[in-house]
Design brief:
The complex is a heterodimer of chains A (153) and B (728). With 153 residues, chain A is of the alpha+beta class. Chain A is built from five helices and five strands. The two termini of chain B are 46 Å apart. Classes of the chains: A alpha+beta (153), B alpha+beta (728).
């Protein structure tokens, strides 16, 4: 069985069980390791990718479910909001252990791609599905505001 | 004492501008995990021509590689280590990279443990002299090389950002160009270290060495190790602690496409497959019958009942000053309270994982390894090899909070035993834990019961303090048994036995319990519960004395200047004396010393009519000696506060008839972004030798919040996690 979809802008066919979670297809079949495994139940957000522009937990999305869709991982981030998010993350020195940060960056990017001026409540709504055990949350919030500002500037 | 505040941090851009680093993009810093041969190749590629000691290599291109004996698990150790060495070397920060040290106790032992490992917030204290000297010796040799070349005395030479200058002749040479010549010179025995006034990196927020790779997904964790032919193993472990495999039926598991082998190992039955997904499906289909004769079958609630009764019986003395029992008995006023603490899981974001490549004569391990030489020894034993046949490649760890450091090397030994059961044929095997494995897997912060009594005299002065602690020992029965003295495990009572308050009669006792539930240190170790008990109870005593909880504490800290200073700083910055907060809001304070770092926090909370708690703001003051990197210190305080807050609001591992009731982050809730308070961190300037910051920030947050809840509601918190934390 194979599934064909757009992965980071390139048409990709992965030969794997269509029931395999997209996370493991991306990691073990496509060989892209930026997307992380944290819970396997869409509870922590470490595996967040974009499917047709929406932040999706790839650990519960079956590979077959993205047939014909646009999937973007941390490796494929290109948009202006994405670059602004990554620059703000560096500027504010957000990561500690860093393991959740791909997912954080993906969720923050999806937020800013739809909402260029998020409020704190918008950030809570978009980011509360992404756990950081190092609790870098204050800096994540500050970095999203900083990124939003840099996009608008 | 002059107090400097870092509440507003200079940004990375400002730092780079201030330090004159040309480009942020040059900061690509990582480490080698590719094994000795590949590591050597990488060194060659980097043209390392100068390696004056075990911590430093400089290439002809001027690249500076600093070898870290400590694990980077988020706490900023790589940045701190590099800062200390690069300071004395006068290196160009933009050319500094950090590489993990191989397992070698002779070169890389932690002075606090006598083995190679990371913990107890000890990395900076370890590095302070060792790495400053390593850097200074490197610098001295580069300077000597230039002096020889230019035929001038070394005293006429200066260094800055990787360049040696001779002002008189306007000559200069980069470290890279001098590296080859320096390598031919003898390593000096003695060097003069910088006066702190000359520091260019220490105290000046150098950007973290690992951030760029952790923002674009390229940072390498164990999860990301992919070796040719590698298989993935999931291990089915017993559902009860202490149970063993009686028999298993692998027929359904073996029929799952991609499953290669099903093997029994000491800790359970492993399914080894070509992918995680196949291993997971195989393990789901695996049938194991368990022998639970020796297993722990009690519920945690029943265990806590036993703890409560034990607290009423005579226990072992952990500290005795004067005679607290009669002092309290004869006191004009007495106060008593008890506090109950659950088992806690560390739940690092990266579930435990290790890759092992085992042959008949070698064992190579890739892991976010925290106890390198302990793990090397345990892996050797499991493999039937000598320790020197075991190579450890330490990668970034996706969090640990203590979990990856354990004397059984549990997850490493599991991986080795699986590789051995698979034939030790050199096939790389990655053992992957799931989140359920992590929460069910034991090595929790122990459950504890604390009972406290205090006596106040007619003048409402505190004259007696009795503190009884009941719970399992972390250290008993292992290689750190020496921490157990006269039956008292120091880690069970730290933060309580060494109570800083000046009280004439103190009695701290410990009753150590036994269970098959495996326990382990958890971020800030004993102070994760003792600080709560001490700081919540002193608040109750202050209230009984009719005194302000801040000034009551301060008056008892006359002989503890550093502790008193952080308390005063936190109270001052929080506006403690500005009067009460509006109805429904409250302010609470707590202070702690852990691993020789002093932290005070003031929490402000809102409690709604239904009793739900929101922590609005936390003001934190910290004294960790000379601040090596103020921004990393602030980050560790922020993170420690969030980590500790999640635990007191939600954290509990509970057992029903021996079975863990929490499976994943739904049952084991941790703090999320919408629950994170505003945090301000203030650092006390100091000339004392640096101490650690990875753990101490966790200690005071729980009691600060509990005391704030009391201020808002008049209700004390005696049971953790807080019963009404959840709004959902």
């Amino acid at each position: 069985m194979s599934t064909t979809f757009m992965l980071n802008g390139a048409s990709t066919t992965l030969d794997a069980d269509p029931a395999m979670p997209l996370l493991w297809a991306i990691r073990e079949v496509a060989g892209l390791h930026g997307t992380k495994f944290g819970c396997g139940m869409a509870l922590c957000g470490a595996c967040t990718v974009h499917v047709d522009g929406d932040a999706v937990r790839s650990c519960v999305m079956p590979l077959g479910g993205v047939a014909g869709k646009q999937v973007t991982t941390i490796e494929g981030l290109q948009s202006k909001p994405a670059k602004a998010v990554q620059a703000a993350w560096i500027e504010l020195q957000v990561p500690q252990c860093g393991y959740c940060q791909s997912g954080q960056v993906m969720s923050a990017t999806a937020l800013l791609e739809k909402n260029a001026a998020p409020t704190d409540a918008d950030i809570d709504g978009a980011m509360s599905g992404n756990i950081c055990r190092c609790a870098t949350y204050s800096r994540i919030r500050a970095a999203i505001h900083a990124a939003a500002q840099s996009i608008r500037a | 004492m002059a107090i400097r505040s870092f509440a507003r941090r200079p940004t990375r851009r400002e730092f780079l501008k201030a330090t004159g680093s040309a480009t942020a993009a040059a900061l690509t810093i990582g480490f080698e995990w590719l094994g000795p041969s590949r590591r050597a190749a990488a060194v060659g590629a980097n043209a390392a021509v100068f390696a004056p000691n075990a911590f430093l290599r400089i290439g002809a291109d001027g690249g500076v590689t600093i070898i870290a004996k400590h694990l980077e698990m988020g706490q900023g150790s790589y940045t701190g280590i590099a800062t200390v060495l690069a300071e004395e070397l006068d290196a160009d920060w933009a050319k500094v990279r950090v590489e993990s040290a191989p397992a070698n106790v002779k070169l890389y032992a932690n002075f606090a443990f006598g083995m190679q490992g990371t913990g107890g917030s000890s990395a900076m204290a370890n590095s302070w002299t060792q790495l400053r000297e390593a850097g200074a010796k490197g610098r001295a040799m580069l300077v000597s090389a230039a002096a020889k070349e230019w035929k001038v005395p070394t005293t006429e030479l200066t260094t800055d950002k990787g360049v040696v200058y001779h002002a008189g002749s306007k000559r200069q040479a980069s470290y890279g160009s001098l590296a080859g010549k320096a390598a031919a010179l003898p390593v000096p025995d003695k060097v003069t270290l910088k006066d702190p006034k000359e520091f260019k990196l220490i105290g000046h927020q150098a950007p973290r060495v690992d951030v760029a790779a952790k923002v674009d997904g390229t940072a390498q964790f164990t999860l990301d190790v992919a070796l040719p032919g590698m298989l993935v193993a999931l291990l089915k472990r017993p559902p009860l602690f202490g149970a063993t495999v009686k028999s298993f039926d692998a027929s359904a598991a073996g029929a799952v496409p991609g499953v290669v082998k099903v093997v029994q190992v000491p800790r359970g039955v492993a399914v080894v497959a070509k992918s995680f997904w196949a291993a997971k499906q195989g393990r789901d289909a695996l049938i194991v019958e368990w022998d639970d004769t020796q297993a722990e079958k009690r519920s945690s609630s029943a265990m806590m009942n036993e703890y409560r009764q034990l607290a009423e019986q005579p226990a072992l003395s952990a500290r005795k000053v004067g005679d607290a029992v009669p002092a309290i008995k004869n006191a004009a006023h007495t106060v008593s309270a008890s506090y109950e603490f659950p088992y806690l899981a560390h739940a690092p974001m990266e579930p435990l994982d290790a890759v092992v490549k085992l042959t008949a004569s070698s064992c190579e391990i890739w892991a976010g390894d925290q106890f390198q030489t302990m793990d090397q020894g345990n892996a050797a034993k499991a493999a039937g090899l000598d320790p020197q046949q075991v190579t450890i490649n330490t990668l970034y760890a996706g969090g640990s909070f203590g979990r990856r450091a354990n004397v059984w090397s549990d997850y490493i030994v599991e991986a080795v035993s699986i590789a051995k059961a698979c034939g030790a044929d050199g096939t790389p095997i990655k053992l992957q834990w799931t989140r359920e494995d992590d929460l069910h897997g034991g090595l929790y912060r122990p459950m504890y019961f604390h009972k406290l009594e205090a006596g106040l005299n007619e003048k409402k002065e505190l004259v007696g303090w009795r503190h009884v602690i009941v719970g399992q020992s972390i250290m008993a029965g292992g290689p750190f048994e020496a921490f157990v003295k006269n039956g008292v495990d120091g880690t069970s009572v730290e933060g309580a036995a060494n109570i800083a308050y000046g009280i004439p009669n103190i009695d701290v006792e410990l009753a150590t319990t036994k269970s098959a539930v495996p326990v382990l240190w958890w971020r800030v170790v004993g102070s994760s519960h003792t600080t709560f008990a001490v700081e919540a109870f002193i608040d109750e005593v202050a209230h009984a004395a009719g005194k302000d909880p801040y000034t009551f504490r301060r008056d008892l800290l006359e002989h503890e200047p550093r502790m008193k200073a952080v308390l005063e700083l936190a109270a001052d910055k929080a506006g403690w004396s500005s009067g009460p907060l509006p109805k429904g809001k409250g302010r609470g304070i707590a202070v702690a010393e852990a691993f020789k770092t002093f932290v005070a926090q003031v929490a402000e909370v809102t409690v709604d009519d239904a009793g739900h708690v929101t922590v609005d703001r936390v003001v934190c003051a910290v004294d960790c000696g000379i601040p090596i990197n103020p921004d990393v210190i602030a980050a560790q305080m922020e993170g420690g506060i969030g980590f500790g807050l999640g635990a007191v609001l939600y954290g509990a591992i509970t057992l029903k008839d021996g079975r863990v009731e929490q499976d994943n982050f739904n049952g084991y809730r941790v703090l999320r972004i919408n629950e994170m308070p505003k945090v301000e961190v203030h650092i006390v300037p100091s000339a004392e030798a640096p101490t650690g910051v990875g753990e101490p920030g966790v200690a005071p947050i729980g009691p600060a919040v509990a005391n704030a809840i009391f201020a808002a509601t008049g209700t004390r918190v005696h049971l953790l996690p807080f019963p009404k934390s959840s709004k959902t």
